[in-house]
Design goal:
By secondary structure, the protein is α/β, with parallel strands linked by helices. The protein has 27 helices and 21 strands. The strands form 6 sheets. A 7-stranded mixed sheet has the order 4-21-18-3-17-15-16, with helices on both faces. Helix 26 runs antiparallel to helix 27. The longest helix is centred in the N-terminal third of the chain and has 26 residues.
Length: about 700
């Protein structure tokens, strides 16, 4: 063993010898012939080495030289570890998403949205305090990042990037990563809204609770003035008021019939279809909720992370055949009814799990729909031990997934909240888009991580009974009932019930503010107009009056309306003692909340200069450059760009734009994150796709 160890040591020394020779030759380019001869004699790199094997004694390396090599290697490694690094993880994202598969079983990359860019920026700025880490890339040594700058090249798209590479050399040569994303215009939104509007999560309310508890412990009286000293505390005060206003009636016992029907009855009734739900009088037990049920809904960021199907990327082949659950949706309120859903799947020749049974129950644990479904592709495996489905059960079934879609579209209320355990699998198997979602695998967290607890274990712990124990397979009605009971149980308790990640958040932790319920809907008792203007946090850059119902329907998946569930990106930064600035044109200043610091610039040249100037006192800058948009307005759209004279002007415009953000890039401090966003646009009914780039300076 010692002999082999000696051989390995000699090999390392020989490699180190060559490395040192290379380093010294670089450092001493003007070395005299005498000194060069001395170096060659030490390292054994003489001109005669190429004529035959090097004698063993020339290959050897002194211990001093080997120590020098290790020292230099350590210094290089330490230098590398001082720099952040960003790289794509799209292959991992594609691999880990179980639902994006085409008919041939080939994995398809799930679509990326502007919220994914928001996650990268927020993680770079807030680090461990960020709500999400980016799912599409990885940022190493994020604590070493000094500044973060995002530049939006308004109206520019991926098509121009591909078509005019010579006019955009910085984009093509200087960036570490790039990724295609869905243009916000496809769902009636904008870059400004998608980046600046940050969904509020229950976990973020722990900051409010801890602040209140600490001040009360110190004997300080809690009042609006205490919270309103800074922009950050203004946001905490708004959250404080909102959560207090969401308090409902005292805890009432949950006495509902939780017994599931035997499988024999369900099989007999499977083809009877839907019992009439009725849109005018859906079952809702909201009076017994201890807090607003909307706080349990997944926001747009969580929906993307949990693989909930989201519109906007319908061109993706994995979304073929998907439908919306409603033609239009009404505003969600604390009274909106809950429906729990569970599906059973079987494996078909389409190399995926296809829908074979769907069951829906309401808040009274009454079955409102239960049907077996026959897949169109031939069945490979009925996985009866899990699905409870057999060939004999499906033989007489004529219901297809399209029939299930029609039932959902016709009979669900327009403000229905669908509940499920890992509900993404159910929605993908039914090929449905729905904006209002509660996932029991998210609202119950027993690990403190993203590792989920199964429905069987949750039911055993919190409901005290055993499910999925039948040797004949699972029963979807039984699972749907257990899911509904878990959601109702959470609503009858505190927000921290069953979730160790938000153990510090309790409804009862909030002292009386005089903003409690008075028998009215909280939307009536505490609407946006009654809040102080300094508390408004919603960034809005699109008038919805002229937007079609189809686009409004898409928008719901990305922009939940109302200030109560959204805070501004810069306000979130303020909570963690970080400062940021927005650089935008004068007409866009009104789109931001009045408490957000915005620098108005009338030209791209001024915007570029202001971006670098503001970095002296700010960690983050969000800058818009409008050169290309202004060109489109003055020189025309569409086919006009194909004219030779217009094409030349377009190239010059892109070149000037490239020089603008190149100057910003060159002026950034070392170890800064620089992000460029091409937001895309819609032109004559054609949508031009978006793209984003990122680089560590």
């Amino acid at each position: 063993m010692s002999k082999r160890k000696d051989e390995r040591t000699e090999n390392k020394k020989r490699k180190a010898m060559a490395f040192l020779a290379l380093v010294k030759s670089t450092e001493d380019n003007d070395t005299s012939p005498a000194k060069k001869s001395k170096v060659e004699s030490q390292t054994g790199t003489t001109g005669s080495c190429n004529n035959g094997p090097i004698p063993q004694k020339e290959k050897s390396m002194s211990d001093e030289m080997y120590d020098e090599f290790k020292k230099k290697r350590k210094e290089n490694k330490e230098l590398i570890m001082q720099r952040p690094k960003v790289f794509l993880t799209l292959d991992e994202l594609t691999r880990d998403n179980p639902h994006h598969v085409d008919d041939n079983g080939v994995k398809i990359r799930p679509p990326l949205f502007m919220s994914d860019v928001q996650h990268l920026l927020m993680f770079a700025v807030l680090q461990e305090y960020s709500s999400f880490k980016p799912r599409w890339c990885r940022l190493l040594r994020v604590g070493k990042i000094t500044k973060v700058v995002a530049v939006v090249l308004d109206s520019l798209s991926a098509q121009e990037y591909e078509r005019f590479p010579g006019s955009l050399p910085t984009l093509h040569q200087a960036f570490d990563i790039q990724a295609d994303i869905i243009a916000p215009v496809q769902y009636a939104s904008s870059v400004r809204e998608d980046i600046m509007n940050v969904p509020i999560r229950l976990t973020s309310q722990a900051d409010v609770v801890q602040l209140v508890k600490q001040k009360q412990k110190d004997g300080i009286k809690i009042s609006p003035q205490f919270f309103k000293n800074t922009v950050a505390k203004t946001q905490l005060w708004q959250s404080y008021k909102n959560l207090k206003a969401l308090m409902s009636n005292p805890l009432q016992s949950l006495e509902l019939d939780s017994s599931a029907k035997p499988d024999s009855e369900i099989v007999a009734e499977a083809q009877n279809g839907l019992q009439d739900v009725g849109e005018d009088s859906p079952v809702s037990t909201f009076e017994q909720d201890k807090f607003d049920r909307r706080w349990l809904m997944l926001n747009s960021a969580q929906m993307a992370v949990e693989h909930i199907p989201m519109p906007g990327g319908e061109s993706n082949r994995s979304f073929y055949g998907f439908k919306y659950t409603k033609k239009s949706y009404s505003k969600i309120t604390r009274k909106s009814p809950l429906f729990a859903i569970d599906c059973e799947m079987i494996q078909t020749k389409a190399s995926k799990m296809d829908l074979a049974r769907v069951s829906i129950v309401d808040e009274n644990l009454q079955v409102v729909y239960d049907s077996f479904v026959k897949p169109r592709a031939p069945v490979i495996d009925y996985v009866t031990q899990f699905s409870g489905i057999t060939e004999e059960i499906l033989a007489p079934v004529t219901t297809r997934v399209e029939d299930v879609q029609k039932v959902m579209t016709t009979c669900l209320p327009p403000d229905a909240i669908l509940c499920g355990q890992s509900i993404s699998s159910d929605l993908n198997s039914m090929k449905l888009f729905h904006p209002y979602i509660i996932d029991t695998s998210v609202i119950y967290n027993l690990t403190g991580t993203r590792q989920k607890t199964g429905l069987k274990k949750l039911t055993s712990i919190f409901l005290g009974r055993d499910i999925q124990s039948n040797s004949g397979g699972h029963c979807s009605v039984e699972d749907a009932m257990a899911t509904m009971e878990l959601v109702l149980l959470k609503l009858r308790n505190e927000m921290n019930f069953g979730d160790i990640k938000i153990k510090n958040v309790k409804t009862t932790d909030y002292p009386d503010t005089g903003l409690g319920h008075s028998g009215r809907d909280e939307d009536e008792g505490l609407d946006d107009s009654q809040l102080d203007n300094s508390c408004m946090t919603v960034t809005r850059s699109l008038e919805l009056n002229g937007v079609s119902d189809k686009m409004k329907r898409k928008r719901l998946f990305f922009q939940q309306e109302g200030c109560k569930f959204i805070e501004n990106f810069l306000h979130r930064m303020e909570k963690h003692s970080k400062k940021g600035k927005i650089i935008d044109e004068p007409v866009s200043v009104a789109d931001y909340p009045v408490t957000v610091p915005v620098v108005s610039c009338s030209s791209d040249k001024e915007s570029s200069k202001q971006t670098l100037a503001q970095l002296a006192e700010n960690t983050f800058c969000f800058t818009h450059l409008y050169g290309y948009r202004n060109f489109l307005r003055t020189c025309g759209h569409g086919t006009d760009q194909d004219k030779p004279e217009t094409a030349e002007e377009l190239k010059k415009c892109l070149w000037r734009l490239d020089r603008r953000f190149w100057k910003i890039l060159m002026g950034l401090p070392e170890r800064s994150l620089f992000v460029v966003i091409l937001p895309g646009r819609e032109e004559n009914g054609v949508v031009y796709s978006a793209k984003t780039f990122a680089k560590i300076t």
